[in-house]
Design a protein that fits this description.
The complex is a heterodimer. By secondary structure, chain A is mostly beta strands. Helix content of chain A is about 0%, strand content about 45%. Chain A has strands spanning about 10-15, 20-25, 35-40, 45-50, 55, 60-65, 70-75, 85-90, 105-110. In chain A, the strands form 2 sheets. Chain A has a 5-stranded mixed sheet, with no helix packed on it. Chain A has a 4-stranded antiparallel sheet with strand order 2-7-6-5, with no helix packed on it. In chain A, a hairpin with a 5-residue loop joins strand 6 (about 60-65) and strand 7 (about 70-75). Chain A is globular, with a radius of gyration of 13 Å. Chain B is mainly β. Helix content of chain B is about 0%, strand content about 55%. Chain B is built from no helices and 11 strands. In chain B, strands 2, 4, 5, 6, 9, 10 and 11 form a 7-stranded mixed sheet that branches. In chain B, strands 1-3-8-7 form a 4-stranded antiparallel sheet, with no helix packed on it. In chain B, strand 7 and strand 8 form a beta hairpin. Chain B is globular and about 35 Å long. Classes of the chains: A mainly beta, B mainly beta. At the A-B interface, strand 4 of A face strand 4, strand 5, strand 9 and strand 10 of B.
């Protein structure tokens, strides 16, 4: 199954940018990178996804390296409510529609 | 637009019993996926349904089954419950379940097996 590597935990000061890295060296050319987060006791929440180009939406920005082997999720102005576990995921191989493989993710702690 | 709803939210069952959980996807979404979340194993994929057909399946025993109705609502069933089945069961819906579609998760059903 698809393999991503993320740091287990990170801290960020409230109001500062949070940069969450992810390595996905086995990603192939047509695999999208997805980011989700899970706030304690809630269902995971979709954040953003991308293929090759950098993407931005109202929640975050996604920077994908040119070789696509790593990406960074950027929360531009972190708030206390952004404290959560962040998952970097990609769908590996054909036929794996609807199947997200969650790793351990990064626990982001936003501190006042 | 209403989000993904799951019923019931909490459930307590006894070993050996069976249980049925329900998931109503976002209107217009045709794909429903189910996941199990435990402290030890994290989030694990159970199966995915699209247009009433199981399209993908994870590595769970046959005691775990599901189905999808013509209105895209889905149910999952666990028979002969074991203590290890205690978990948060999450369903997620998406437009097509392909690689370019984000999934939206419900709040989950917390199942406790005693």
């Amino acid at each position: 199954d698809a393999k991503t590597t993320q740091p287990p935990s990170m801290d960020c000061a409230e109001g500062r940018a949070a940069n969450l890295p992810c390595n996905h060296s086995t990603i192939s050319g047509n695999e999208y990178v997805y980011w989700y987060r899970q706030i304690h006791s809630q269902g995971p929440q979709y954040i953003i996804h991308g293929l090759k180009n950098n993407e931005t939406n109202e929640m975050a920005s996604l920077i994908i390296t040119e070789d696509r082997k790593s990406s960074t999720l950027i929360l531009p102005h972190a708030t206390l409510r952004d404290t959560a576990v962040y998952y970097c995921i990609f769908l590996h191989g054909s036929g794996n529609t609807g199947k997200l493989i969650f790793g351990q993710g990064t626990t982001l702690q936003v501190k006042p | 637009k209403a989000g993904v709803t799951q019923t019931p939210r909490y459930l307590i069952k006894t070993r050996g019993q069976q249980v049925t959980l329900s998931c109503s996807p976002i209107s217009g979404h045709r794909s429903v996926s189910w996941y199990q979340q435990t402290p030890g194993q994290g989030l694990q994929f159970l199966f995915e349904y699209f247009s009433e057909t199981q399209r993908n399946k994870g590595n769970f025993p046959g005691r775990f089954s599901g189905r999808q109705f013509s209105n895209s609502r889905s149910e999952m069933n666990v028979s002969t419950l074991e203590l290890g089945d205690s978990a948060l069961y999450l369903c997620a819906s998406s437009l097509g379940g392909g690689r370019d579609y984000e999934q939206y998760f419900g709040p989950g059903t917390r199942l406790t097996v005693t």
